[in-house]
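With this grant's support, we have paired protein sequences with backbone structure tokens. One protein thus recorded is set out beneath this paragraph:

_____
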Amino acid sequence: MKTVTILITSLMLATSYFYVTPLSDQKESKALEQFDNNTISIEPDTNVIKVALLLDTSNSMDGLIDQAKSQLWELVNELSYAKCKHESKPSLQIALYEYGNDRLNAREGFIRQVNAFSNDLDEISKNLFGLTTNGGNEYCGKVIQVSLDQLDWGADKNDLNLIFIAGNEPFDQGPVRYQDASLNACEKDVTINTIFCGNYNTGAQTHWKDGAESAKGTYIAINHDKRTVHVPSPYDQAILEKNKALNNTYIGYGRLAEDKMALQIQQDANANEYGQANAVKRAVSKSSHFYKNSSWDLVDAEKEADFSYEELDDNDLPNELKGKSTSEIKAYIATKRKEREKIQKEIAQLNSKRIAYVAEQTKKDDNQLRNAMVEAIKTQAKKKNYTWE
């Protein structure tokens, strides 16, 4: 069997959004450049939960990747309930790597950065669903070190920086010693959590336990081939109907708008591939503060500090706003914002009832990957005075 690795720096994405509002040709050019390079822009006073997902895409890892695809939104939802010590809500960034795949560059250690830290949850979902497996060599120490070198971990001690690496091959394979990578992680205030796909004792004997403990993380063993359990609830259909209404509150503008609106719908469909209950979890994520689209949506863009109605180009506006006065555009955006906030509140209320119902129906060993991640994140978050609602 091949190695499985999940590096979560994120997570669910996750994640301040890396787009700058394209209010003029110059700003739009900058937004497109950032879009292409998977970079991000973060408010300086915003605390961040950074989760880096590093997935081994070798042949035996189909089950793990399926779990990651099907549990992305539930993990995002759990993180959305976090609060910093001063009671403000942090942002979320997720980075994604794949490694251990023969199709990847051997000279680079069979490692590819799929996306750098980002809060564009739709883009992260698209990239995750685009992963395919193939045989290869899996080097845990190497991929950890690459993520430490390539990603912007920042220097704010209030940020929560996490790596999750999962697999089933010996942890000490490859050209980089995991002990050295762990030392570098500690220097950057990054915690490494290891998830062994198999027997607990086998993972401990092949250094997965030491790999976590050497970087102040948590070691967990899971059955990666166990199918994710999504429990339906009586509130699901109502939430999905609200999600359709939520999509109608977006006002696309600029060059990114058409593609990003299509991407939003496509990721709704991808979530639904794993069942209606999973689609519901995505809808809940879309109603949270993590889901921002200021690079192409006027409702979100208007909240940005550098937004200016005077810089709006009529050519960038949707048909319903072309030729309108500033006051008319403001009124239209205000209407859509009020509508969106109402829908988000309704989804939150329905979700509270859904959570209570699902808790009664869920077995403790269901959804092992998600449970392992959430437990580790909450344990490590307490050390930095994060709390959960």
